[in-house]
Amino acid sequence: MDILIRSTPAEVAIAAADIFVRYANAGATLGLATGSTPVAMYQELTARYERQEVSFARSRAFLLDEYVGLARSHEQSYYSTIRRVFTSHVDFIDELVQSPEGDAADSDRAAAAYDQAIRHAGGIDIQLLGIGGNGHIGFNEPSSSLQSRTRLETLHPRTVQDNARFFENTDSVPRYALTQGLGTISEARHLLLLATGTEKSSAVRDMVEGPLSAHCPASVLQLHPRATVILDEDAASQLEDYEYYRFVDEHRPH
Ligand code: F6R
Question: Which N-terminal stretch is annotated as signal sequence (predicted)?
Fold first, then answer.
């Protein structure tokens, strides 16, 4: 795992954008995440697009997950959210920004079709990830098989609580989602996980230094040959080997 520790969330966004633009300009298939953490990176990418430093015209994108039971037109569906916060502000071809069909009549079928669509596109070159306070990635909650495929998942009460800020109240938060599985995510050629804030620090410690465990789904990154984790100091604050990671980052052999 490559661990980059930056002073502030703004610096995390810049470091992540530096990696992402190389893929976009090469016309890569991009895996996108929603939630609050990547928003600063999306704003940075939009600014670079406006300065003509990056184009998404040759890229396609797959989202990590989608709530079940929300219409695509619902402002909190991830289909709508990614367009509002990012893809509609740059030159993405809208039809090439795909997400699991959360409002499908047959969720199992929609999940299998999504895995298939990713495969048909030749796989994901770089998958952006956030991490839940309980260690989830995508909506793979604790106890998810490390080899799981895209499927219907029941949201953990902590996730429902964490995401209530986007809804009128906790009761309006969907209880189910379609999520890329941990096996699906692991097939992306490069994983790029961002985390900021102290509320992520124990999940980050478990992901990086804890045992490989379905109890911390993000620990599956330990098995990936190319995983980059970019943290601010708060999110990195519980890492036992903090000083070593900083040293490695500052003294990379070229
Ligand atoms: C979002 C997703 C989630 C979030 C995670 C962190 O598509 O799959 O795993 O990345 O819940 O959310 P934030 O960034 O809002 O703290």
Answer: none
